[in-house]
Amino acid sequence: MALDDHIIQRWQSSRILLLGGSAGSFKLLYRIVKLLPAKCSKTVIIIIHRKKNFFSEIEKLFAENSRMCLREISDKEPIAINTIYVAPANYHTLVEKQGFFSLDVSEAVWFSKPSIDVTFESVAEIFKDQVTAILFSGANQDGASGLLKLRQSGALTIAQNPVEAEMTEMPQSAIDMHAAEYVLSTTDIFKLLETPPDT
Amino acid sequence: MPDAKESLTDAQLTELIDIVKKIHGFDFSDYTEASFRRRIARVMMIKKLEFYDLKHLLINDPNFFQEFLEEITVNVTEMFRDPAFYKSLHTQVIPYLSTYQHIKVWCAGCSTGEEAYSLAILLNEEKLLKRSFIYGTDINTEVLNYAKKGIYSLRKIKSYAENYLFTGLPGSLTDHFTMMYDAAAIHSELKQNTLFSVHNLISDTVFNEFQLISCRNVFIYFETELQHRILDLFYNSLCPLGYLCLGNKETIRSDIFRKKFKVINQKENIYQKIGS
Asked: Which phi and psi angles does B222 have, rounded to 5°?
């Protein structure tokens, strides 16, 4: 599958960019954070599997290389535009219809907290077709059913081509569940995200 | 997995909250919606209930409500969750607490007791436990029974022990437990000055005066206005210059709060009451 006008137009008109990944996704997410323009007129939410109790440099590394404002999500934080949000370790991140994030310490999903499924499902419920969601490399199937729910809610859903993924299971599970409307190469994903917003 | 089902409509959710409030006296109307919906979906999935069945059970089966309450509230907790928090409690707060003749601690929303016992261990390490008293409260009687026992599975203890290592406290967590087969029981000296009892933050009032109140990862389930009401309750339950600890992602964005509390540690959300 390649980029076509339809996918580009849907990317341009979406308000939320959701990025999910686990093992093998860090470098890709880092590149995306770097390439997004300062005023992309979107809210970017990143869910990457991470361990508790490890002092994490993710936010620092991302923030230093991003042209957008970057924040680790705290509870009841308003969802702002032109901002990249990173889900904190040891919490699930949810979104509320009044336009803010909320956190949850409930049971891990697929042994993961943050779980990609939990956030994807929550975003699907609130933002429906205003979302572009991409699922990257990872070693378990977290994210696949969330991506399916997003697709069913009218979001643009993309899986990284498993052939290129360091860990294939995560994007492959999404494809097997028919959750990914498009399967794109990393080059195409970058190209798509570099397309300037609709004005 | 939870959330697989179609979620409830707004009207259904309101109806459910109304039933629980009128029949059982628990008010969930100011709970954060997204996680509350997720919990309801989870109960319906685990118990294989349609909305109608759930409603029916809540109205007609007096025993069902306790089960419902257990599933609806999040009872995931850890000993020494966020080790950095305990570290700063140790260095920034304990020295002040040690100047009191009696140290009364309130662990609000204590669930199965892990946090209350973490505080007991910390106070014991500083030889303060004998003149301390720790109250653990929750709305859920079932988790309180669990807390009173102070017995945890080895699987849990293993993960708590990892947290403990990062706190900088001497020895290891298991020094404070007696192992029995596949479980571990907290030493009875650590249980001595604790009391676990029912208290509802939403409807109950001040019941004592405390030097330290810890209420971590409870506010994430409450709407902002409700948080403010409970902050008032905490303020009125603290002695002058008493300490309040919230979860480290539970930032309070309100002026009222800043006028009543001084920040002791911004990152770990530790505050001190100002004024009387």
From this structure: -115, 145
Shortest distance between the Cα of A199 and any Cα of chain B, in A, equals 32
Chain-chain contact of B1 with A145 (C-beta, under 8 angstroms): yes
Which of the four pLDDT bands, split at 50, 70 and 90, describes residue A197?
confident
Residue B20 lies in a domain: yes
pLDDT tens digits for B154-187? 999 999 999 999 999 999 999 999 999 999 999 9
Answering whether pTM is above 0.90, one says yes
Whether residue B60 has pLDDT greater than 60: yes
Query: What residue ranges in B109-232 does DSSP mark as E strands?
Result: 132-138, 151-153, 177-180, 183-186, 194-198, 210-215
Q: Looking at the complex, does the CB of residue A59 fall below 8 Å from at least one CB of chain B? A: no
The rounded distance, in Å, linking the Cα atoms of B181 and B203 is: 41
Distance CA A41, CA A15 (A): 7
Rounded to whole angstroms, the Cα distance separating A143 from B90 reads 39
Whether B148 is covered by a domain: the verdict is yes
Of A135, A118, A146, the closest CA to residue A172 belongs to A135
Distance from the B41 Cα atom to the nearest Cα atom in chain A, whole angstroms: 12
H/E stretch holding B162 reads helix B154-165
CATH number of A5-194: 3.40.50.180
Q: How far apart are the first and last CA of chain B?
A: 49
The token pair that represents B50 in the structure block: 């349609």
| A55 confidence band (pLDDT: 50, 70, 90) | low
On whether both B103 and B134 belong to a single domain, the answer is yes
